[in-house]
Design a protein that fits this description.
Helix content of chain B: under 10%
Number of strands of chain B: 9
Oligomer: heterodimer
Strand content of chain A: over 45%
Radius of gyration of chain B: 13 Å
Number of helices of chain A: 0
Radius of gyration of chain A: 13 Å
Number of helices of chain B: 0
Structural class of chain A: mainly beta
Distance between the termini of chain B: 28 Å
Shape of chain B: globular
Largest sheet of chain B: 6 strands, mixed
Order of helices and strands of chain A: EEEEEEEEEEE
Amino acid sequence: EVQLVESGGGLVQPGGSLRLSCAASGFTLSTYWMSWVRQAPGKGLEWVANIKQDGSERYYVDSVKGRFTISRDNAKRSLFLQMDSLRAEDTAVYYCARGWYFEYWGQGTLVTVSS
Amino acid sequence: QSVLTQPPSASGTPGQRVTISCSGSSSNIGSDFVNWYQQLPGTAPKLLMYSNNQRPSGVPDRFSGSKSGTSASLAISGLQSEDEAEYYCAAWDDSLNVWVFGGGTKLTVL
């Protein structure tokens, strides 16, 4: 069974940092593109970033470029999102999703940026 | 303001057929596949349709998708109460190199 479990969310002050993790099981992580998608409270879905199977290509939405870094450790079956210089508008549930088409999603982890 | 445009709401009675539209541009829908996601209240999104009209395993054939030019549609026939959810379209934008989503359509089963 495919499982994606996010962790690392929490309350952080503006300007602070958080590192999200996504533990993958039930499939071979190294064969899939992986993405982070977020959803602000009461709002729609917004794609944040994705990373190719071997990490050689990464893409980001403009609003997080230079502040967020997506990475992966296929051997440890994990996907990461390093979030720096956090802003209030980054407050959202962050989902990791498998594949180019986001075939599977985790349950999400809530990031709250507030003083 | 989302790059892809969806109606904010749609509704129908049980057994009816409803359609949800998704409008984009030549750099996203016009040049790439469209996917649809269903998000039931309080849960994570789920892939409902990929590559315009392909249903993942387990998705009922009451759901169908289509694309023409820079627009796409999701149709739900034989509407059921459990179809009440938020529906999102998405496509890769070739010029921006980003995935873009529609703003979502809240489907209400009356």
